[in-house]
Amino acid sequence: MSDPQPTPSRDPTDTVRASFDDLPLGPALRRGVREMGYHEPTAIQRDTIPHAVEGRDLIGTAQTGTGKTAAFLLPILERLFGRPRGTIYALVLTPTRELAIQAEGFLAKLGRHTRLRGAAVYGGVGMADQERALRGGAEIIVATPGRLLDHLDRGYVDFRSLEILVLDEADRMLDMGFLPDVRRILGRLPRSRQTMLFSATMPPEIVRLSQEFLRDPRIVRVDPTTVAAAGVSHHAVLVAPERKTDVLVDRLRDPTLTSVLVFVRTKHRADRLARQLQQRGVGAAVIHGNRSQHQRIHALEGFRGGRFRVLVATDIAARGVDVEGVSHVVNYDIPHEAETYVHRVGRTARAQRRGDALSLVGREELHDFALIERLLGFPIEKEKGPGGSLETPLSVRPPAPSSAAGHRPGVRAGANVPRRPRRQYRRY
Question: For the structural domain made of 6-222, what CATH number should be given?
Answer without folding.
Answer: 3.40.50.300
